Amino acid sequence: MPDQSFPGNFPVLGQPVDELALAEIKGAILAKLRLAIGKDAGMATRHDWYKAAALALRDRIVHHWLTAEKQSYDAGRKRVYYLSLEFLIGRLFTDALNNMGLLPLFETALGDLGVALSDLRKCEPDAALGNGGLGRLAACFMESMATLAIPAIGYGIRYDFGLFRQIIAQGWQQEYPDEWLGFGNPWEFQRPEVVYHVHFGGNIERITDANGRERVVWHPAETVQAVAYDTPIVGWRGQHVNALRLWSARAPDPLRLDVFNTGDYLGASAEQARAEAICKFLYPNDESPAGRELRLRQEYFFVSASLQDLVQRHLASDGQLRGLPSKVAVQLNDTHPSLAVTELMRILVDLHNFRWEEAWKITVATLSYTNHTLLPEALETWPVELFERLLPRHLDIIYRINVAHLALADARCPDDVDFRASVSLIDEKSGRRVRMGQLAFVGSHRVNGVSAMHSDLMKETVFHDLHYLYPDRITNKTNGITFRRWLMLANPRLTELLREACGEAVLDDPSQLSRLESRASDNAFQQQFRSVKHHNKIALARLIGERLNVRVDPAALFDVQIKRIHEYKRQLLNIIETVALYQAIRDEPQRDWVPRVKIFAGKAAASYRYAKLIIKLINDVAEVVNNDPVVAGRLKVAFLADYNVSLAEVIIPAADLSEQISTAGMEASGTGNMKLALNGALTIGTLDGANIEIRDHVGAENIAIFGMEAMDVVVRRKQGLDATDVIRRSPRLSRAINAIGSGEFSPDDPGRFESIAHALRYLDHYMVSADFDSYYEAQRGIDARWQVVPAWTRASILNVARMAWFSSDRTIREYAEDIWDVPVRGTSPAAAQEPAAQRGATR
Q1: DSSP string spanning 260-294?
Q2: Could you give the domains of the chain?
Q3: Any catalytic annotation for residue 675?
Q4: Which residue out of 405, 563, 566, 634 is catalytically annotated?
Q5: What is the pLDDT of residues 573-587, one digit of tens each?
Q6: Is 671 annotated as catalytic?
Q7: Closest CA relative to residue 574, chosen from 597, 555, 540
Q8: Is 569 labeled as catalytic in the residue annotation?
Q9: Which residues are within 8 A (CB) of 68 and not within 5 positions of it... i.e. 6 or more apart?
Q10: What is the pLDDT of residues 48-88, one digit of tens each?
């Protein structure tokens, strides 16, 4: 029997398989294969076996789900509704098996039936309903809310096609549809009875009702139906299950028969095609007016459906809306759901006859907003003209909110025209645009950043004047990751070693990782730790060989940068250092160079031409370096295409060095930095985002910090973006830029990278040239550390031992206590009780 101090059925190491449970699971899988798939074992494909096993597991999850739902409603518990345009949930099969404690049982049962769990896992596509960190954070948060038994629903869009599938053809990124629903989705439950009408366009009319009150009536021109699909999200040990509710769009009348019968077969389904476009694809290209309109339609569609749904749920259980904030907490994940402010006001004022002032108090007390970026272009703005055409009632509400808001600004700073313009919800300087970040800020009772530095910079930069107007609104909630996926599932060998070294309690209480500290210098334990890392590196080396036909040595230093391709994340700095290192090796091939594999993965937005050019540069450099006999394998470069959660689960456990090299002051937090450090990679990075808190926890001696700090970047930008001064002082940098710009890595098109060389010299906005020498020297310091194996291993072990605070359970506990006012049950990791001063939560 399992240790009773740990509830649930997760097997203790060495525990024998329960034969009765094993027989039951085999029977359930075979029954699903026959009755739900319609196949017998002899005719079943791998996909059939996968679906049968997933459905058998889903049955066990549903019992927990319905029980948890009933208990929370019976108890009248406050509920959290998490609104996010992205949920990068990845594969659910093994994640749910792990959280339910059924992974060994299902693996044995399937093996007895003649199929391998590892093969079935590959049949499940990644649900790539997100772009990167934002969507993955939402997935981690959903899992942690279930683990902490917080009644919650995640709301988003059920995209027909997730983020594009990335193909690298002759070094260039090409985008193809990601058909994640091609074989169906055994995890979701369609709810055809849950349908809401979402309106667009038309006009508004002001009338006076029978009580003499002026009312506004919206006469929309178009209606789209939102249909619900629910996916269960399992908490650790299966004790609590929440729902992820995704909305699909359809037209109320999918086929106009009168039009069809005239012979206009395409026109007959035009309304359906227009409606379905809303959920067709994540992040349509917004370079065109049509693309921008579709993006706004997407955002309003999911916000409106979600708020209608949560209001109906609340009314069904509570009967009235006056006490909504005491029973409902709505979290806006970034600016995409900002329309929740106006939509909740519309629902309260137009549909439920609340007076404006009371509706506003309810709205602000219910909503809270997470900001994820300091980049002005990511704080969405929309032309007033587009807003007026698409959402006339909401623009009217924004104007009225702005009147009261600006009155407060005038009272705080009388006659200050610049202050008034700065805080206004309407930007009058750029062709009159609605500021969505401002709207979310004004309409929420709490606004949080996602790392200590980011939250401080919010007060000093993008929300400086709003912070002055609402001084108690901004708070910090440093991001976290779910250890269940990013340690236990992604790195089972390390997890087994941790269970032996720290005890079974480490599965429930990440603070138990600190027990590793006493083993960090132990030679025998270091050998075990290195053996785990080497095994993971062999797996990644095999994958690189299969995908790229590039042979890499698992004994080399695996240097990893995996994230969205963007100038501020500075993959360009990494590849320029690669060029400089390559040139140095060629100059002195007889030196004892540290063998290094540079591993890149990430997608560039389809319209982001410069980022796509950087991908081409990485691949062109790889082509030259990997085939140069002088280098003789001491340096390899690998760009792994189509980065997703499943690929990350292979790369992260194998990484030796984690590249977190964004321009200081531009990365809000990062979570890849946490995943990599948790798996024993040392970080090389700037003092940016959560790197600062990682340094504070793992110790400055166990991380490599380089480059300018945020204020240094501000000062240098004010001096200008010309970098010829630093290039002149750096022969290595000058030589690398010249090689790139002159076509040494693009002999077929010598001018291909001239624009990159020009930007590095004269338009160094992201401080790539300015930080190069510091980065290069930090990398040579990494080389020196790598050669002292016991010291490197000790630092790697201490990174794992000191990462407990970066659990998303801790982050969600802080949201629950400080923002949502929701009681937390479930596991109680000791790390969550650590004093804020010690864990670096505030500065």
Answers
A1: HTTT-HHHHTHHHHHHHGGGTBSS--TTSHHHHHH
A2: 18-75+92-125 (no CATH), 76-91+126-476 (3.40.50.2000), 483-720+786-803 (3.40.50.2000)
A3: yes
A4: 563
A5: 999 999 999 999 999
A6: yes
A7: 597
A8: yes
A9: 149, 151, 240, 241, 242
A10: 999 999 999 999 999 999 999 999 999 999 999 999 999 99
